[in-house]
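Blinded run. Sample ID left blank on purpose so nobody reads anything into the name before looking at the predicted structure. Input follows.
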Amino acid sequence: MRYLLVFLLALLVSQTSHAQIYEFGIFAGGSNFIGDVGSTNYISPNQVAFGGIVKWNRSPRHAYRASIIFTNLEAVDSKSDDPRRRQRNYGFRNGLFEASLGMEFTFFDFNLHDVSLKGTPYLYTGISVARHENFFFDNNGRLTSENTNSWAYGIPMTLGYKVSISPHFILGAEIGARYTFSDELDGSVPDADFREQFSFGNTNSNDWYVFSGFTLTYTFGQKPCYCDF
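Blinded prediction complete.
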């Protein structure tokens, strides 16, 4: 075990002299829902969200990025500014698992070859897919599970700021809205066609959800030649 620790320490020390092009780490923060149930505030996290993130930096200005995030989307009419929603008093909590893949663009060069302190705003977009539970509200307003799950495809739109806090660690803060091609996340449109009579709200407007939080990634890898990209 002593030799293994010495080897790992030597490996980490040797890496400080090389540039890094890969990142892996964690996302931690909160989530909120925007749809036909609950508050319509765009940034109002009310449930914990956490997951993992991987990046492949192809140049100082862009990187391929993949992530998985878990959360329980929650929306409660009693916290809405709309008096009609407060009177209706619907509410739900929907377990959600999201996988996302896309590209991250930095406003300024964020060269991982340079070990000096640096920071930059960034944008991320791509495609996301989220697995969620299906349910509906019956005629008495009771939440009723359909005992099925569905996948909601979406487009992530994320704005953030990241800074290198050491030669190997990068800390970021971001807010990412997801526009989905589904109206089923809040139970306003049941998944089963024969339950169509239980639909409510604006059925022409799809659901959104938002992740707000922090990322912490570890960088590693050999120095590439960015001139080819």
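Unblinding after everyone has recorded impressions. Confidence is low (pLDDT under 50) at residues 3-19.
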